[in-house]
TrEMBL record:
The keyword Metal-binding applies. Its EC number is 3.6.1.15, 3.6.1.6. Has nucleoside phosphatase activity towards nucleoside triphosphates and nucleoside diphosphates. Its cofactor is Mg(2+). This is Nucleoside triphosphate/diphosphate phosphatase. Residues 18-156 form the DUF402 domain. The lineage of its organism: Bacteria, Bacillati, Bacillota, Bacilli, Bacillales. It comes from Niallia endozanthoxylica. It catalyses: a ribonucleoside 5'-triphosphate + H2O = a ribonucleoside 5'-diphosphate + phosphate + H(+); a ribonucleoside 5'-diphosphate + H2O = a ribonucleoside 5'-phosphate + phosphate + H(+). PANTHER family: PTHR39159, UPF0374 PROTEIN YGAC. Keywords: Hydrolase, Magnesium, Metal-binding. InterPro entries: DUF402 (IPR007295), FomD-like_sf (IPR035930), Ntdp-like (IPR050212), SA1684 (IPR016882). Mg(2+) 1 binds at residues 87, 103, 107.
Length: 176
């Protein structure tokens, strides 16, 4: 596994458990890259869905991927505060082409006041049966939901007070 180069653009590829592409983010600037951690920034990037439809993100975002956790986190900077979208997913890999992970349907949306909602439990159950998620994956994902909730409550990692603002400032230096 390679290491993405800081300041360079990369794509993000999300897959489903069956290997099919789910979603592609066209360009994210690498702000920190190592074997274990990638932090990126993007704003108004093109996103392509599996059916070919495209849309453009509406606000600046900081992305957080870790090789030891079964989730990734997107912090979106909006006028009324920072919103987070957390995807329960496989740990990322970087293959020189893109940051890649398997999306496992479950999501946690976190609001600026740090309240949160677990989303898409019905989609997860449907896909778990359709794609035959192994029991071990189910157990890992449920444990990682608990880890994410602890991080949110403890303001850990990307949920720390200045995390998103600090990395957004770094992102702006690359955009100038």
């Amino acid at each position: 596994m390679g290491v993405p180069i800081e300041g360079e653009p990369v794509q993000i590829h999300s897959f489903k458990h069956n290997g099919h592409i789910h979603r592609v983010w066209d360009e994210t600037t690498v702000l920190k890259g190592s074997q274990n951690l990638v932090i990126g920034g993007n704003d108004r990037t093109i996103v392509t869905e599996s059916d070919g439809r495209t849309w453009v993100t509406r606000e600046p975002a900081i992305t957080y991927f870790h090789s030891q956790h079964w989730f990734n986190i997107i912090g979106m900077l909006r006028e009324d505060g920072i919103y987070y979208y957390c995807n329960l997913s496989s740990p990322f890999i970087y293959d020189g082409e893109a940051i890649k992970y398997i999306d496992y349907d479950l999501d946690i949306k976190v609001f600026p006041d740090m309240t949160f909602h677990l989303l898409d439990e019905d989609e997860y159950e449907r896909h778990r049966k359709e794609m035959n998620y192994p029991d071990v994956i189910d157990q890992i994902l449920k444990a990682n939901v608990d880890t994410l909730i602890q991080w949110i409550r403890q303001r850990k990692g990307p949920f720390a007070a200045d995390f998103i603002d600090t990395w957004y400032e770094r992102y702006l230096t690359y955009r100038r």
